[in-house]
Recover the amino acids of this structure.
């Protein structure tokens, strides 16, 4: 990051060196000149942000030097200093373009504070802040990428993984992810990012429900200084921060129609214009959007633009609810059980067959997120081999089991237990739908082909 460059012009070596050394300690780049001619040579040969000029100088006075400097570069901020602090000199210096004036002797901290109030200093601090924010987001995204895993054995999950890999190989194809709350839409979005060539760049997630309509353009596209009341510095928008990476728009179905039109234009043109700017910024970005609502219903109710839906729906991934992915429950249980046991430094327990049966019969309105919370609570409540799990149904009914029923002391869940449970569930499903394999497959959250394979594996006949 470039430091601000300060030029100190004073014919008194003591003042010149003292100011210079102090500003170097304050992390500024400093150049010094004894005479105006030396100062002008420096100005013409190197970029200077701020000039500190003594009023009384040989060759010409400080005000004349200031005028020459500002004629060459009006963007340089000038601070005048003088051992003759008469008001007439102060007024003239300020009138001719100085941003501040200090009478000798002065406190060096006052010079520092004056520099820190300049427009260039504030702009640099804003730039540093934006870079730091982007860097921290990138670190978070990379850390999340290291921990990213898609857990599940169901045919539905295998298909999702296949689709993720397919779209990840494209450069910037936009993606729409649909599914109920808690199914893992953000995880799929991060997975696409981590599987793509963009994985070394930022994954920036935005909750569309949390953006006030009057701040939409500023938040997404950024703004210049003084673009509106309160815009004291320039600021990058989320699109620019995520440039060369992935921008994830979570719950886009809640975005107001007025915002949707502006978003559509950016997706089509791949460029933005910050509020208050006359220049466009071209983008290299992938946009992934998600919603827990049915897009067709939103369109029919005039809550979502059809053209935006078609633009986002270039590639569509729908995540089935957990109740339709029964094959994923045991792997998810094992994963979260290991994760929470490790983080809480507790022995890893194994859920009993009775608990598994209850979970397999539960409809999980909160999906994977609800299952995760259940396991976390079970691990928290476990003490000396005991645990407690409460399964709240959507109707308010609950299944409560004590530690003896919840967690067994077996070292592992045997394969025979799982096979027996799977066989029993297939029989129950087929009985419920009067041996209609297509309906049974839908009920079990799998495909007819997969169901036929499992029926054959267990030696069943229907």
């Amino acid at each position: 990051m470039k430091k601000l460059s300060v030029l100190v012009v004073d014919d008194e070596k003591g003042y010149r060196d003292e100011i210079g050394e102090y500003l170097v300690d304050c992390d500024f780049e400093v150049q010094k000149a004894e005479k105006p001619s030396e100062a002008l040579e420096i100005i013409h040969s190197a970029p200077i942000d701020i000039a500190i000029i003594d009023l009384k100088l040989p060759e010409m006075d400080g005000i004349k030097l200031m005028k020459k400097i500002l004629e060459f570069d009006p963007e340089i901020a000038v601070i005048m200093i003088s051992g003759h602090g008469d008001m007439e000199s102060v007024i003239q210096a300020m009138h001719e373009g100085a941003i501040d004036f200090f009478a000798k002797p002065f406190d060096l901290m006052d010079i520092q504070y004056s520099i820190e109030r300049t427009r260039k200093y504030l702009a640099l601090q804003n730039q540093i802040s934006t870079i730091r924010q982007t860097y921290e987001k990138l670190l978070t995204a990379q850390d999340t990428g290291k921990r990213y895993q898609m857990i599940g054995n169901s045919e539905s999950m295998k298909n999702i993984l296949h689709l993720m890999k397919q779209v990840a190989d494209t450069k910037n194809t936009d993606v729409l992810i649909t599914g109920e709350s808690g199914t893992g839409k953000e995880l799929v979005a991060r997975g696409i990012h981590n599987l793509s060539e963009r994985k070394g760049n930022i994954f920036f997630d935005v909750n569309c429900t949390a953006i006030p309509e009057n701040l939409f353009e500023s938040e997404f596209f950024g703004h210049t200084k003084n673009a509106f009341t309160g815009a004291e510095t320039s600021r990058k928008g989320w699109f620019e921060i995520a440039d060369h990476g992935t921008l994830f728009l979570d719950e886009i179905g809640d975005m107001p129609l007025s915002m949707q039109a502006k978003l559509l234009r950016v997706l089509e043109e791949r460029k933005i214009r910050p509020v208050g700017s006359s220049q466009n910024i071209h983008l290299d970005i992938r946009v992934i959007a998600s919603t827990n609502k049915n897009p067709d219903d939103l369109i029919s109710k005039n809550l979502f633009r059809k053209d935006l839906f078609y633009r986002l729906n270039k590639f569509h991934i729908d995540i089935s609810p957990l109740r339709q992915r029964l094959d994923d429950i045991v792997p998810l249980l094992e994963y979260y059980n290991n994760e929470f046991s490790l983080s809480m430094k507790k022995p890893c327990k194994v859920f009993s067959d009775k608990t598994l049966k209850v979970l397999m019969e539960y409809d999980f309105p909160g999906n994977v997120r609800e299952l995760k919370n259940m396991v976390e609570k079970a691990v928290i409540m476990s003490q000396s081999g005991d645990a407690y799990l409460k399964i709240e149904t959507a109707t308010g009914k609950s299944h409560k089991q004590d530690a003896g029923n919840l967690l067994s002391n077996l070292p592992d869940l045997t394969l025979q237990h799982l096979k027996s449970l799977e066989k029993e569930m297939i029989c129950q499903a087929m009985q419920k739908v009067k041996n209609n394999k297509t309906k049974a497959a839908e009920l079990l959250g799998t495909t007819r082909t997969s169901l036929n394979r499992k029926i054959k594996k267990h030696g069943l006949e229907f």
